[in-house]
Amino acid sequence: MPALRSTLFALWLAVTVVPYALLVLPVSLFLRGAPLYRFATGWAVLALWGARVICGIRHRVIGLEHLPDGPAVILSKHQSAWETLALPRILPRPLSIVLKRELFYLPFFGWSLARLDMIGIDRSKGAEAFAQIESDGRRMLGRGNWLFVFPEGTRVPRGAAGNYKTGGARLAIATGAPIVPIAVDSARCWPRNAFIKRPGLITVSIGPPIVPQGRSPAELTHAVRDWIEAEMRRIDPEAYSGNAAR
Q: Model pTM?
């Protein structure tokens, strides 16, 4: 049954993403900024509906009261593609996600992504790339967006911690915006790089803002890592008992 459900869900994604992405392109000629973002991320609503109805994947959100009214840099745990779909709809402001520029060249999905206020970077350029992130980040914060970074850089298995990079902390220090850490246990239902999805409840936990003032990038990153990894153990204790599927 999980294999059949996962196959149907994959078909659901395939038949919805192409027409929706093609619709975003002409719409982007007339809408920009937050209105276009809300329209474009409407596909995520379809994807999450399919995950719930076809695969039985539900979610809950705790800690929404911690979200600030002003600028913020969001740093989130990354276990699967689920959070890339869900968080743009869960969080109340448009997200300017720091991502690899190559993603913009993906057919359909990437083309639509390129029409939004994302921050595409060339990782090979090092310091020059961060200068671009800082410049673009200030501009996006000025538009009312929140900056979004996966500090581990890539998806990590359930029950594991990746190498937390300092880029998000450096961005917070450069802009003065507080960091909002997010823990999410999506791999309990949507394991990394796995085709088979499992029914269950995903928890998204939003932590209190962490102010960057007076901290080095390493200290700030350490504080973010400590909160996220401690919260992961609280919301998904089974993953750290040695018995969780990865």
A: 0.92
